[in-house]
Amino acid sequence: MTDKFISIEGIARRYPGADGGQISVFEDLWLSMSRGEFGCVIGHSGCGKTTVLNILAGLDEPSEGAVIVDGQAIEGTSLDRAVIFQSHALLPWRTVLGNVSYAVTSKWRNWDRAKVKAHAQKFIDLVGLTGSEHKRPSELSGGMKQRVGIARALSITPKIMLMDEPFSALDALTRGTLQDEVRRICLETGQTAFMITHDVDEAIYLADKIFLMTNGPGAVLAEIVENPLPKDRGRIDLHRHPYYYALRNHIVDFLVSRSKTFAATVTNHDPRNVPIVRPGLSEPTIVASPKMIETSPAQTIAR
Amino acid sequence: MTSSLRFRAAIVSIVLFAAFLGIWHISTRGTGTVANMTPEYAKLMGLTATAGKSAMPGPLDVGAKLWEHLKSPFYDNGPNDKGLGIQLGYSIARVGLGYFLAVIVAIPLGFLIGMSPLFSKALDPFIQVLKPISPLAWMPLALYTIKDSSISAIFVIFICSVWPMLLNTSFGVAAVRKEWINVARTLEVGTVRRAFTVILPAAAPTILTGMRISIGIAWLVIVAAEMLVGGTGIGYFVWNEWNNLSITNVIIAILLIGIVGMLLDQILARFTRMVTFPE
Predict the structure, then answer these.
(1) Omega into B201 within 30° of 0, i.e. cis?
(2) pLDDT single digits (tens) B77-106
(3) What confidence tier does B32 reach under pLDDT thresholds 50, 70, 90?
(4) Which of B56, B71, B87 is the last residue of a domain?
(5) pLDDT value for B3
(6) Is B96 exposed, middle or buried (0-12, 13-18, 19+ CB in 10 A)?
(7) Given an 8 Å threshold on Cβ–Cβ distance, is A87 in contact with B182?
């Protein structure tokens, strides 16, 4: 890890508890990403994923530690870090064009109207909303609203895109298309992106690195999983790749059992040196003995 | 379906109105000769005593008088005899001025309270104490300090319309969705621009609702205030005509107060619809 474009250094977030004490969401969290990488955080609700993202965005402040982006410690929000909100957060009194233009004029305050419009239009076209510029958010479907959210985030040409479960409120079909769009855009523009998700397949499809977080409170970053699948993976034949199930099982196993027991079983966890795992063929994908196969046929099929 | 509902409702309204006029007419008409008097004495006593006519004017009397007023709404025959248009004009001008001053004070102050938890807490006790005071209770104090009855009336309008606007503005501003504020924050939008481009449009429907409540209260209060300060205005007209024992004119004034109040409310309702956004 030579090029640390984003570096989260020992951050902690504590809230005042009901009994006057402090409830710690997470302590001493270290995480770094290189330029152009796509990182996904996976963990159960309440593990502080959103807090990490909000701190990265500058919407929240860590109780301790610092975040360094492109060599500079962040202070508050910045136009370099665009956020795509879970609830799309469009301004309902503005049109599609108005919402994107609002972001554009925020970044380039002295641009004239025509230039702003042309720039905004470019990103509306990019997310495939050509023709809907003058609609209001209430006239759009959930997927279209989130496309506007993506266009708005991209239009300010940020250094990092931060996404807080951007597709979780969408139906499976729309989610798939939007994942394709995001992946295409990120690959084309070399965008650095940081996403929070619940969806294992989404993480496998989109992410270069998957950060596994244990359950909160007192959550830790347990493992960094490097995606072994080729960069030019497609969503349709993703599951046919020989490494796919090794990767998927590894993450699911973590979510199902290890995320709960991690704190109790792993005593020598070093938060500054989180193990990096690269599931692949070398990892025994079929470990069950014939006897086990008999007793748990469902598992056999899954593997 | 909706048009037919509207049509049926209109018919019911008309029927109810006609029934009301009918009952009114029957209950106020004369019942015939009730007492035998000498013609001179009868002339002195009037129809109330001779023909059993109610002292309450009937709808026909009111209608005739109303027509008379509508024909010349703006005549001016000295301080005690002005056209209804002039009297209403005075009242509307006072309400307008007091209300306008209230808007200027209440909306910025409401923004401050809504955006700053410190000021919200610090000003809360003052608002809680001042809000329930009847606006007319301020009248003596206003007359004493301002020393002008007309401006005192405007002050009373100001003080009564300021509270609903202030509370609704601060509530609307404080209740702006966190995600919209976060959008502005991530776009590094400054406080002033954020107030105008995010908070104002988001809170506008709530603010306008407060303004609509205020205009209603202001119109309620102006009648009472003008009864006290006298001189001009529809409230003064009502009291003056009561002193003249012209119940017909009192009824006409009541009707007009209602109609103007409705129009003011409708204007604000239209503004509210203009700033309301579908989600």
Answers:
(1) no
(2) 888 788 899 999 999 999 999 999 999 999
(3) low
(4) B56
(5) 75
(6) middle
(7) no
Per 3-state DSSP, chain A is made up of helix, strand and coil in percentages (nearest 5) of: 40, 20, 40
B251 neighbors B258 (Cβ within 8 angstroms): no
| Residue B185 to residue A107, Cβ atoms within 8 A | no
Q: Determine the residue type at B115.
A: M
Which residues touch B107 (CB under 8 Å, ≥6 apart)? B165, B169, B207
Task: Tell me which fold the domain A6-80+158-302 belongs to.
Answer: Rossmann fold (3.40.50)
* Residues B152 and B78 both lie in one domain: yes
Average pLDDT of the segment spanning B137-145: 92
Range of the domain at B184: 58-275
d(CA A250, CA B187): 38
B51 and B63 co-located in one domain: no
Q: Give chain B's length.
A: 279
Residues B63 and B199 in one domain: yes
Q: Average the pLDDT over B38-54 and give the result.
A: 73
Closest CA to A7 of A40, A28, A30, A27: A30
Residue B160's closest CA among B104, B209, B98, B112?
B98
A276 three-class SS: strand
User: Which structure tokens are listed for B7?
Assistant: 């049509």
Q: How far apart are CA B182 and CA B179, in angstroms?
A: 5
- Which pLDDT score is estimated for A2? 52
Of the candidates B185, B186, B198, the beta carbon closest to that of A91 is on B198
pLDDT at B51 over 80: no
Examine the domain organization and report whether B91 and B210 are in the same domain. yes
Q: What is the mean pLDDT of chain B?
A: 91
Kindly list the residues of chain A whose beta carbon comes within 8 Å of any beta carbon in chain B: 57-59, 76-79, 81-83, 85, 87, 89, 91-93, 102-103, 106-107, 136-138, 156
Residue whose pair of structure tokens reads 């009707």 in the numeric block: B255
The minimum CA-CA distance between A286 and chain B, rounded to whole Å, is 46
Say yes or no: B193 and B234 in one domain: yes
pLDDT of A297 > 50? The answer is: no
The pLDDT tens digits of the residues spanning B203-262 come to 999 999 999 999 999 999 999 999 998 889 999 999 999 998 889 999 999 999 999 999
The interface predicted TM-score of the complex, written ipTM, equals 0.83
From chain B, the residues in CB contact with A56 under 8 A are: none
Mean pLDDT of chain A: 86
**Termini Cα distance of chain A:** 32
Rounded to 5°, angle at Cα B132 from B130 and B135: 80
